[in-house]
Amino acid sequence: MRRAYSTAHCTLELPDYHPFPKYKYAGVAEALRGELDIQPAPAIAWETLALAHTPDYLQKLRSEGLSRQESHKVGLPWSQSLLTRALHAAGGTLAATLDALQTGLGLNLAGGTHHAYPGRAEGYCLFNDVAVAIAYLRAQGWNGRVLVVDLDAHQGNGTAAFFRNDPTVFTLSVHAERNYPLKKEPGDLNVGLADATNDAAYLEALEAALEQAFTHRPDLVFYNAGVDVLQNDRFGRLGLSLQGLAERDRMVFEKIRQAGQPLVVVMGGGYNRDPQTTVAGHAQTYRLALETLANR
């Protein structure tokens, strides 16, 4: 049975009215129980974070945490539980990355925190888990080419900033153009879509974007599989159906299957007004990954 990592064991202290969907991490793990060997995501080491994030930023988190102004920019109140959960989410992505290099497929039922910059937190994201995992591989002497396929409804601005001057990492972001962040970072390929883009238009744009991105000839692919692209998401602004989401994922997974690269899937965003839709969308993504790629 394929292994996956989860932060469902981590608590997160938030006011009851807060829109962050902490329910989904336990919900997706429960939905996939019996289909995956779900393990608690390990906490990442501070020394590993230091391979990607700046020393001053990490020291601030360890000693004093975020100020009220910084917490406002993140969108989450500062607490020890927030830090602990972020450490485990990043650890899950690193563990999934090592699984992918060994078996061809790594799964983290968390992560995709693509708004974090080297020296600051932003948009629900303390650490950029994908950037940290890539930095760890580099430190271990792995020099392969990387493709980041970010299909969250929000541009992966932090990830684009991390790799702006790194020709070995190609960043693709397909997102709602008028969505957060208002100022987009230059990436290798940014595809901004109109509000309420439907299944057909989205899939047409994605097909062309993937064709271009895979000319990078990656040796490893990270897939940020946010489901905030679904219609009725609180923050997504796009209009995909669950069927359209499935077609999106199949398109990505089939491209990877044909090319034969190892894949790491991270969860990304999902804030649907119907919590069951958020959980169903995420669980569907991981099931399709297993269906398409588990037996390579």
From TrEMBL:
The entry lists its GO molecular-function terms as: histone deacetylase activity; hydrolase activity
Q: Which SUPFAM superfamilies match?
A: Arginase/deacetylase
User: Which Gene3D superfamilies does the record cross-reference, listed alphabetically?
Assistant: Histone deacetylase domain
Occurrences of domain Histone deacetylase (ranges): 18-276
What's one GO BP annotation on this UniProt entry? Answer: epigenetic regulation of gene expression
Which is an annotated Pfam family here? Hist_deacetyl
| Source domain of life | Bacteria
Q: What keywords tag this UniProt record?
A: Hydrolase
Q: Where does the signal sequence lie?
A: none
State the InterPro entries in the record.
HDAC_classIV (IPR044150), HDACs (IPR000286), His_deacetylse_dom (IPR023801), His_deacetylse_dom_sf (IPR037138), Ureohydrolase_dom_sf (IPR023696)
Q: Which family does it belong to?
A: Belongs to the histone deacetylase family.
Q: What is the protein named?
A: Histone deacetylase superfamily
